[in-house]
Amino acid sequence: MRPVVCIVGRPNVGKSTLFNRIVGSRIAITEDRPGVTRDRIYAEAEWLNNYFILIDTGGIEPYSDDIILSQIKRQAEVAIDTADIILFVVDGLDGVTSTDREIANLLRKSGKKVILVCNKVDTPKTPDIVYEFYELGFGEPTVVSAGQSLGLGDLLDKVIENFPEGKDTEYEEGVIKVSIIGKPNVGKSSLINNVLGEDRVIVSNIPGTTRDAIDTPFTYREDKYVFIDTAGVRRKRNVSENVERYSVIRTLTAIERSDISILMIDATEGVTEQDAKIAGYAHERGKGLIIAVNKWDLIEKANNTYREFEKNIRNKLSFVIYAPIIFVSAKTGKRVDKLLQLIKKVYNSYTQKISTGVLNDIINEAVLLSPPPTDKGKSLKIYYGTQIGVKPPKFAIFINNAKLLHFSYERYIENQIRSHFGYEGTPIRFQFREKGD
Hints:
GTPase that plays an essential role in the late steps of ribosome biogenesis. The chain has helices at 15-23, 67-82, 98-110, 152-161, 188-196, 242-257, 273-284, 305-316, 336-350, 356-369, 407-421; strands at 4-8, 41-47, 50-56, 85-91, 113-119, 142-143, 176-182, 214-220, 223-229, 260-266, 288-294, 325-327, 374-375, 378-379, 382-389, 394-399, 429-434. It is an alpha/beta fold. The strands form four sheets. The protein has a six-stranded mixed sheet, with helices on both faces. The chain is elongated and about 90 Å long.
């Protein structure tokens, strides 16, 4: 387990900007208005070869009755409970506020190590107003400017000095990364909460509640996973706010970071054009893909309901015919355990390797069964093939003339390989090279 560092504070004090500076990339959404970061956001960070997990949280407003803001407070409390060290961020230009005092009371009750971070101090000389923050009871404030990257080294020195003993800070390999993708309000966050058995992600029936991509590590049957929950991708004409635009980018980034994407489809709506576009993102980037039809418990069943729904999916998403389909209910937990088993199965396909000898036996057999078509008296010759990569599986096939290769014959070769080795849930990539390339 790596040390966990959590950033908390009231809205609009620069928590997400600080998070991004420490992590070194623009992971959290930052915008100059309160309430933009709604969920906890996990990221791996490093300082002087010390690795740790950094958590960003939404701004805490202790007295708010708003349903979203009250859940933000709850999420921050969970993050505080998870953390080894807490960075309590305050605004060095505003001075101490009543909300700062309430958050300080909450942090004292946690019993965790708290480092007070006085942000937005852009001048070399510390303003007198900063000394007001001693009253919060966390000792001398660490003065920084996240926006200007000032004072971050001193802050991180303090962080690593306070790492608990016995924590392994080495970077962890071999984790299966799974992005949960789909339109807004199809149940992505509910699925993660069901798997983990806790209210890890804010869930409501307001579309677009999840705005950031959120990393959730967990273990299942001794395998280590990270679920990457994403904001739902809206149609472009519905993407009006800057925050929503960032969320679309975040979804694409989450797909890029993952090994496998789970496309969640709302059973009550069926497959839509937007679902096809989202599946296309994962396919183009060569990711493993599972199609999870959620809210299946709300569908009135008849004899052929399952087959007709599956047939409709295959017709509209024919370009990802390799993707398995599973019908689930994230709310009730139906078939969620089977979904986890399917993830491992697809990951095994995604990383499967075939020896050159066995691969060429399959190719030679395929050519004997169905020789390549001729073109003006010239015929395609396949010399041999070899696997050159995984994630997804990649094959180099050496031929005499690339111009003689028709896409239908390439698809035939792919189908023959799939029929022998499965490759369920993963695309296959080919590089056809002329002899001598």
